[in-house]
Amino acid sequence: MQTQKVTTDIRSPFRFHTAWSKVKIRGRSEHWMSFEDSINLRMFLMTDFNEAKSWSGLIERLTEKGFQLAFQGDRLTLFDRHTGIALCTCRFLGFSFRELFRSFGKPTVIAGSCRLVPEA
């Protein structure tokens, strides 16, 4: 299985335009999105977070919609898979890592990339 490193460099030559590409950079690793965009994103992903039965299930659902999860420091962050842009934390969406850990247990993380992957 080939792994892809998560990047937050939006100047990448491989940048694609997605509905979530318009978030504005706040700092080196944080981005700002409008209130409307944040509500839309939460509504778009709420069913996936609520209905997933495992980390693998959640990761597969998010991948199908063009997202991936990775840690930035100690924060579980949602990334746009096509642009590598860090959109927000899962807690911002209403799903803290603590709650997800309680539901799914310990996630599988690729060393060096901090990206979550489905269990083997």
Short description:
The chain has 120 residues and is α+β, with helices and mostly antiparallel strands. The chain contains three helices and seven strands; from the N terminus they run E-E-H-H-E-E-E-H-E-E.
Question: Could you characterize the architecture of this molecule?
Answer:
The protein is built from 3 helices and 7 strands. It is an alpha+beta fold and 120 residues long. The chain has one domain. The chain starts with 23 loop residues before the first strand and ends with a strand. Residues 1-16 have low confidence and may be disordered.
Low-confidence stretches: 1-16
Radius of gyration: 14 Å
**The number of domains:** 1
Report the end-to-end length measured between terminal Cα atoms: 10 Å
Note the total helix count. Answer: 3
Sheet with most strands: 3 strands, antiparallel
Series of H and E elements: EEHHEEEHEE
Return the average pLDDT rounded to an integer: 80
The proportion of residues forming helix, as a percent range, comes to: 25-40%
Strand composition percent: 15-25%
Q: Globular, elongated, flat, extended or rod-shaped: what is the shape?
A: globular
Strand order of the largest sheet: 3-4-5
Kindly name the structural category.
alpha+beta
Q: Quick one: how many beta strands?
A: 7
